[in-house]
Amino acid sequence: MVSGLINANPVVYQKKERRARNTPCDSDEYAVESIDQLEIFDILSLFLDIKDPEHPYSLEELKVITEDAVEVDDGLSYVRVTFTPTVEHCSMATIIGLCLRVKLMRSLPSRYKVDIRVAPGSHATEAAVNKQLNDKERVAAALENPNLLDMVDECLAPSYS
Amino acid sequence: MAELCKLTHYVESFVDVSRTPSQQATSLETITSLVKNNVLTIETLVREMGMYLTITDNIIRGRGILLLGELLACLASKPLDSATIHSLIAFFTERLADWKALRGALVGCLALMRRKTNVGSISQNDAKSVAQSYFQNLQVQSLGQHDRKLSFELLACLLEHYPDAVVSLGDDLVYGICEAIDGEKDPHCLLLTFRIVELVAKLFPDPTGALASSSSDLFEFLGCYFPIHFTHGKEEDIDVRRNDLSHALMRAFSSTPLFEPFAIPLLLEKLSSSLPLAKIDSLKYLSDCTVKYGADRMKKHSEAIWSSVKEIIFTSIGQPNLSINTESLNSPSFQENEMTTEALRLLQKMVVASNGLFLTLIINDEDVKDIFNILNIYTCYKDFPLQSRQRLNAVGHILYTSASASVASCDHVFESYFHRLLDFMGISVDQYHNDKISPIRNLNFGALYLCIEVIAACRNLIVSSDENTCSVKEKSYSMLQIFSCSVVQLLSSTFSGIVKRDLHDAEFYCAVKGLLNLSTFPVGSSPVSRVIFEDILLEFMSFITVNFKFGSLWNHALKALQHIGSFVDKYPGSVESQSYMHIVVEKIALMFSPHDEVLPLMLKLEMAVDIGRTGRSYMLKIVGGIEETIFYNLSEVYVYGNSKSVEIVLSLLDCYSTKILPWFDEAGDFEEVILRFALNIWDQIEKCSTFSTSMDKCIQVLLDATMMALKLSVRSCSKESQNIIVQKAFNVLLTSSFSPLKVTLSNTIPVQMEGLQFLQQKDNPTSRDEWILSLFASVTIALRPQVHVPDVRLIIRLLMLSTTRGCVPAAQALGSMINKLSVKSDKVEVSSYVSLEEAIDIIFKTEFRCLHNESTGDGSEMFLTDLCSSIEKSSLLQVHAVVGLSWIGKGLLLCGHDKVRDITMVFLQLLVSKSRTDASPLQQFKLEKDNETSLDFAVMKGAAEAFHILMSDSEACLNRKFHAIVRPLYKQRFFSTMMPIFQTLVSKSDTSLSRYMLYQAYAHVISDTPLTAILSDAKKFIPMLLDGLLTLSVNGINKDVVYSLLLVLSGILMDKNGQEAVTENAHKIVDCLAGLTDFSHMMLVRETAIQCLVAVSELPHARIYPMRRQVLHVISKALDDPKRSVRQEAVRCRQAWASIASRSLHF
């Protein structure tokens, strides 16, 4: 591990005004509300403030994830989240990616295929990170590691309260 | 004497420090009571205690003196002779030197000095020697916190009660005090310290006296506390808050003008600090000092204060807020932050104190003058840049505050500004005698705004001054009088401007505020003449009646009219209130006439209620108009079946019941109007002999609304009025075909056993008779218990007949009558009087002759209860009888009558015995869906619903609003009687349908019972509750029942008292909840079930660990729920359960 912070002074953005979901109040009891972009984003950020492993800011404030970076297709049970590390050489990228993946795996129906990617051009070892994050075996292995799992749990902890 | 012997023992136990505090307190109490009851004199006591008071052991001596001191504190009201007091105080005074045993001496001195003169107090000489000893011997700052506090209390007491004794000490006193308070930090002691300074300052008011020389020293100690910086947390010193301290310090600051040379510079310095709290405190202190120090001393600081205050106001103020808020009549200055408010307060204080000097400073200020440049540049509010808006607002506030400070300052402001502002607005000062002003093309917003502020100040001044007459002669007033006409014209012209869209909302708001201020001068000292006042009202009315499309502006104008109304209503009989009545109220009352269709009805109603609320006479007038319209349209409905009239009447009645009647109740004393309304309804229906047949479906809605209005009206009436109404109603009833005289002279009531075919037929109350009956029922529902219904026996039979025909209000009326009869039992016997027992007899012993076939004309005879449970053949009649019986039962249940038991038995029998076809519920419901006329089922359903009627709080009748007799805890009582019965019945029930129905009834009972009653015995109820949930959730027909049952379960889960019962049944509960998580018929059930599962996860780990796989499996399905909120709950639940599971289950 590198001693000291990788990005000591990150740019903090104002949280974007959340667009209100226009729910019809007298909605049909049997109507289906499909999982959409905003819901995934909410899972990841709103009532689930994933914290940056390095800073006390939420990933939303650091603009690591944005609503537009979520692609979802409920019919095809597919979701892809593209996140942007704060600096190009961020070694935390894999941890952040792992947190995102775990969060989604725990919150989405099992039929979903989750795809986590680093935004193109935002990371030095983009390909390697992408490969690591989407390799089932390696993710499973990572979560076998008690230290790593504790770290992930800690990142996700406040999101359930 | 025996008590006396124990004295040594008591003393010993107090002095002994190894005893517990409670033992010590007891012995003190005993000794006190001995002395109080004169068993023991103080002299004897002191002699007995001699050794304890003089011993060389510090601790024992200290405790001994403390005992004597505390004893004296307890004897504050016992008279003592002066010799005793003198020797005691001498002793304590001397003991002040004994620093090792000080506490007792302080307590003793304090106790003696606080004595009232009528029970013997210490002399001035003694007080002086106490003071001398105090300053000689006490090193206050070296003492502990409690002793310091006592010392300060002693000092404050000396200063407060023995000023003459201590004044003679002169300089010693002041130095002593300086020394004592130097460096104090404890909040309790500080409060006392500040008080001491305040007191000592009052003792030496002389500018050349003892304090004069040492005031700088004293202030040095004081000044370092400002501004109060309070670091104590919430948990400690909860009884002293920062505000208390700050306030005490402020009083110390302003206690003497001698502090002025030190205090004001310090405050001015802190005013420029960056700490907001320091700024606010400085402003407050300055205000207080300005008042206390006097004009002469403050004069030299005027300029410094003005420049600081100006800067604060200019920087802290926001944009002009133009809407009318509720207190705008009293203080047109708007909601501001605390700093601005305090700054303006200081400004006002300075203006009042400085005799015009300060005002001159303001008026000649460059920044204030500069505002006219801004006025030159921008005319329209929209053009103002933000900074200029703030500036305008600041100047407006400054002018308002200084003008409303005093009459002289108001004149001054008017002289300096009014003409110039008028000039800006295009009103020429020279031609004020010309009534016409040229129509303005560009209204100068800034000038208008400032002008309104100045007028508002003038109004405020006149309103707040007691002698209105004196201000009439003031210059400002006469200037306003001269120009009022032109100003009003100018302001009114904005109304047309806004309609033509030449102007913007801001100008409109401003103009409305101006007109509002001009028209709400106190009557008798108003600068506007009656004609102009009426002009203003006319302008408002013409805007309101036409331009309803301007949403918020319309509301704004309406609000202004409302303000004017409530203001002139304070002057009954004045010309203004007459004009208001004539121009506004009468016009609104007339608006409801059918020919006036400019405004939508809803707006008319809103307007009418808002204006009516401003005064009684106005409301009366308006209600008159509304009533007239209601009755006009009602007759339209009766005679022609006019469907448009139905709509109008519906909204009018709704407004009457929901807005006007509650206001009547609140204001009180409107009974005459309410009575008239109720009687008019009856008159109306009496007059109309033929009913139109062309009425459509919504007639039922109309009947309901009429009934509700009638019910609510009758409810608000007194006993006497209710008697009149019920008599009238009875007379009308006699004219109908239902007339009791015609129907039931015999004891039997003929009824038709109708077949299946009638169930689907909706009965529209199209006939006049049915209207009359329903209305009569609603009158009966709302009667007070003391009111007699004429001819009760016949009425009861009549209502029973209608009940069996399916008229629910009749059943409710029966229930209400029975309920209220119960209190009359001790009345004198009158021939028409019917007791509760007799009424019950009538109801249950009246025979119904069932005519199976109309042609034959004969049939079996049976009672009401038999009618319900007749098993030969289900009929519609039976369904109606069940409903009727349940309302009667409710009436009895509320007043706690035993008969209700028989009634519930009838229902239970129906539930159990009816299931002749043993179909499984599912099949049964399928059948039911196909063929809705399955009467068997309808009867059972009715019986189950009956329990809902019995237990739930009905809005329509039998509640406290309608004067029902409600025994306390009746729900709990019924619940505890019913539960065992349900349990046995369910276990015995042999068919699934009757079991299903029993559970439904059970669910109604348990979900309407207060949770606490269930919790006390939750263990017993949970198994059946879970069975009920399982049974009822097989289909979605009773989803609401399932939901309310689930809420009971969740109530038990969430409550601490239910935990034990829950833990025992954890497995079953989880099974049940797991089943409910995919209850497809209702989202709320799924959501609540998952929330309950989260609650279950808090149970002891060992108990729930075995269930984790099951729960996680269920939840993973719920993650794919069609509803979003269910999915969100599922995520939470999954996390809660995953964290108790092993790692491998994390995914």
UniProtKB/TrEMBL annotation, chain A:
SUPFAM superfamilies, A to Z: Fe-S cluster assembly (FSCA) domain-like
Q: Any idea which UniProt keywords this protein has?
A: Chromosome partition
Question: Where do the MIP18 family-like domain residues begin and end?
Answer: 43-112
- Name one process (GO BP) from the record: protein maturation
Cite the Pfam families for this sequence: FeS_assembly_P
Q: Which family is this protein grouped under?
A: Belongs to the MIP18 family.
PANTHER family, from UniProt?
CYTOSOLIC IRON-SULFUR ASSEMBLY COMPONENT 2B, CYTOSOLIC IRON-SULFUR ASSEMBLY COMPONENT 2B-RELATED
Can you say what this protein is called? Answer: MIP18 family-like domain-containing protein
Source species of the chain: Cucumis sativus
TrEMBL record, chain B:
| Start and end residues of each MMS19 N-terminal domain | 46-314
Q: Name one GO cellular component term.
A: nucleus
Biological process terms in GO annotation: DNA repair; iron-sulfur cluster assembly; protein maturation
Entries under InterPro entries matching the protein: ARM-like, ARM-type_fold, MMS19, MMS19_C, MMS19_N
Q: Does the keyword rRNA-binding apply?
A: no
Superkingdom of this protein's organism: Eukaryota
Name the major location: nucleus
PANTHER family per record: DNA REPAIR/TRANSCRIPTION PROTEIN MET18/MMS19, MMS19 NUCLEOTIDE EXCISION REPAIR PROTEIN HOMOLOG
Keyword annotations for this protein, in alphabetical order, are: DNA damage, DNA repair, Nucleus, Repeat
Give the similarity note.
Answer: Belongs to the MET18/MMS19 family.
Q: Where in the cell is it found?
A: Nucleus
* Residue ranges of every copy of the MMS19 C-terminal domain listed in the record: 702-1095
Q: What does this protein do?
A: Key component of the cytosolic iron-sulfur protein assembly (CIA) complex, a multiprotein complex that mediates the incorporation of iron-sulfur cluster into apoproteins specifically involved in DNA metabolism and genomic integrity. In the CIA complex, MMS19 acts as an adapter between early-acting CIA components and a subset of cellular target iron-sulfur proteins.
The residues forming a coiled coil are none
What is this protein identified as? MMS19 nucleotide excision repair protein
